[in-house]
UniProtKB/TrEMBL annotation:
UniProt entry keywords in alphabetical sequence: DNA-binding, Transcription, Transcription regulation
Domain Phosphoribosyltransferase, residue spans: 109-249
Family the UniProt entry places it in: Belongs to the purine/pyrimidine phosphoribosyltransferase family. PurR subfamily.
Subunit comment: Homodimer.
Protein species of origin: Cohnella lubricantis
Any one GO BP annotation for this protein: negative regulation of DNA-templated transcription
Protein name: Pur operon repressor
Gene name of the record: purR
Pfam families xrefs: Pribosyltran, PuR_N
Lineage start: Bacteria, Bacillati, Bacillota, Bacilli, Bacillales
Amino acid sequence: MKKLKRSARLVEMTQYLLARPHTLISLTAFADRYQSAKSSISEDLAIIKEVFEEEGIGELYTLAGAAGGVRFVPKCRKEQALERIQSICRELEQPDRLLPGGYLYMTDLLGQPGLLQDVGQMFATAFADRNIDAIMTVETKGIPLAHAASLYLNVPVIIVRRDHKVTEGSVVSINYVSGSTKRIQTMSLARRALREESRVLIIDDFMKAGGTIQGMIDLLHEFRAVVAGVGVFVESGEVDNEERLLHDYISLAKLTEVDLKSRQIVVQPGNFFN
C-alpha cells in the first residue's frame, strides 16, 4: 500500500479494524502496511480507541509484548440497544403477526439488513468474552441471525439440519423431544462441520420450552464441544419454569402475552436488558 497522509491513514485503519473484529493485529503489521513508524501507529490507534469508546462502537484492546498488538471487540451500548429493541418489539406486536400456537411471524424482519446488523451486534456484545470458536443454529430462520452475530464475532456458522443431505457427507444424528409439541424429531450435523472440543455459541430465533436448543446441546456433546452460551432473539414468556428445558440463556425480546381472541400481543425487552 502506498504511503498515506495521516487523515487518510486513520480512515483506512478504522475500516481495517472494523472488518477484522476479535483479530489480533500487530503494530508491525500496521507499520508495514502504512509505511509508518510504530510510534505514529500507536498515536493513531489511541485516537481510534477514544472514538470507538465514546461513540459506543466497541473497544480496542492493546496487548503488550513481542507477540502483542491490538484487537477490536465490537460492542453496543445498552441504552442504544434498548431503544432499538423497543422499536422491534412494537413491530412484533402487530396483530397480523400472530400465528396458530402462539407463534409470531418474523420472516420479514429477519430479512432486514439494518435489523440483523443491530441484533448481531447485541449478541456479539452479550457474548464478547466467551472465547467462541463457532456459532451453531438450526435451519432455517435462525440462519440470518447466526450470520449477523458471526460478522461481529468473526467466527464460522455451523448449521444443524433437520433432514440429512447427501452433500453433507457423514453426519451425526440425534433424536430430541420438541419442548412445545412433545414430538420426537431428528437433527443432524456433518462430522466435518465442527472440530471436537470447540466452544460454541447457540443462536435461535424463537424459544418456547427450549426443546430445539436442548437438542443442539445434546448434539454438541457428541462432538465433545463446549456450549459457550445460548442467545435467543425472542423467547416465550407463557411457559412455566417447570416446563422450560433451558434456563441459562440470553434473550433480546420476550413474548409476554398473547390473546388469540382479541389478537393482542405484548412483547417486551428480553433478559439481556435486565
